[in-house]
Amino acid sequence: xxxxxxxxxxxxxxxxxxxxxxxxxxxxxxxxxxxxxxxxxxxxxxxxxxxxxxxxxxxxxxxxxxxxxxxxxxxxxxxxxxxxxxxxxxxxxxxxxxxxxxxxxxxxxxxxxxxx
Amino acid sequence: xxxxxxxxxxxxxxxxxxxxxxxxxxxxxxxxxxxxxxxxxxxxxxxxxxxxxxxxxxxxxxxxxxxxxxxxxxxxxxxxxxxxxxxxxxxxxxxxxxxxxxxxxxxxx
Lengths: 116, 109
Fold this sequence. Notes:
A: mainly beta, 6-stranded mixed sheet, 4-stranded antiparallel sheet, B: mainly beta, 5-stranded antiparallel sheet, globular
């Protein structure tokens, strides 16, 4: 597609339920990132995929969070046993190559997760 | 259609120069505008602007928002090589973020 596509755009879930958030990056982009944005906070890095390399999972806040990227394209972020503190906007981004200066990253519009 | 446009797309300056980066937007239900510095994998938060005409300042960086003309500027004075990065502008609407594609700044020694 023309841009990074995320779904769902909004999700309200009950505490303890699992959620899946989907990201479809720009075609041909080898790098894919997941971030979390809480109101008033900066972007929090979660996970980074680059081509066929092992993903950088250093930002995942707990073992309830996992992500996969199938076929080097679409990615799914899964949050198990959701907690209220998981409420945030989850942003996906992609770039043509690795994160070096000048390699612009393109963001999706985010998935707004509310855990009640 | 909601959109955020940044200019210039790229910029090369010498150390000590002052630069001004622009971000214009057309969105419904504007809530705030945010600036980030992208060097590696995680953009660094710089400023969040919600009110018109109030300058936010942090060291050599400053930013201001004009909600009438629908734009914001990010100023960097006395640039250093460490300022080289992509600067991202994002607008938060009712429930979505809209990012510009960024301005790539290169500061030459």
